Amino acid sequence: MTLKTTETISHSGADTEPSWMVGLPLTRFIPKVHPHSDQIIEDVHAFFLEHWPFPNERARKKFVGGNFAYGLCASWPESLDERIRHACQLFTLLFLVDDILDDMSLDEGRAYNDMVLSFMDGKRTPNRDIPVEWITYDIWESMRACDPVLSAGVLETMAPFMHAQTASIRVKENVGLKELITATALYCAGLVVPQEDMALVAPLDDIWVKHLIYCNDAWSYDKELRTAQETNPEAFTKTWTDCSSVQAFSSVSIIMEKAGITASAAKRVLVFLQREMEALHENIASEVLAKKATPEVQRYIKILEYQMSGNELWTSQTLRYNFSRCQA
Q: What H or E segment, with its residue span, contains residue 174?
């Protein structure tokens, strides 16, 4: 079932379908990748490899294998060139920061995120000897120069999203995620959708968020379980089948517990749920367009479809989640 293109295999390297995916239904949506993705990905990788303080060569290889820029180019394939570059830089930064948080306590993580946030509004001057400070600052300066209005919409979503990452109890609702992705998608497209129309398509937003969560939970489960085992090995059996509190809100863990099935079976259930979300999207999109089929609404609906297929394309291929298919 794994979605594959020539670009996917060459960029992410994970081109072997895992056994739990065999025989599952294909997505209804045809994925598309930004036409300039090759150059964008090369530039983003080169930038961070030059400037980010990776601790060692293994970490650098892991970063390239994660290929966050490819995920964005697949999720927002019709973005304006300059803006998708900004988005790739921003989300790559967020992923790298998230990796740093893995090794911090909650209090340390909150302080670190607050520090990063303080350089986003342009009011605090960065120390040019500290990469996370000046990279954060420069990304946002570029975004404001490109589009002060839509970039401000993205900025408004950052604090709720980043604060949720270090909540004392893992946030089931993925606070801020929907708003961050929506605002960035609009920024990348240079698209302004009237508020009344955004209210009209709100049910579709709920659908793609569920699709994203089901997809990411399925593919990230092994990575999160492995990380949790390494940081708290006493909480797990030698077979990795037990779950600790850090997995409490994972869809895989919940399905395993409620249905009494294995992790592989639970991940397969999540794929079927993704397909149900796609069918539901098509039904509700038809209802929305019957009420108001403006160019902006039509374009926004298409953006959501690409977000779903693009995220699935990336998660099924990135070595961030498929570490067992490419040992560093």
A: none
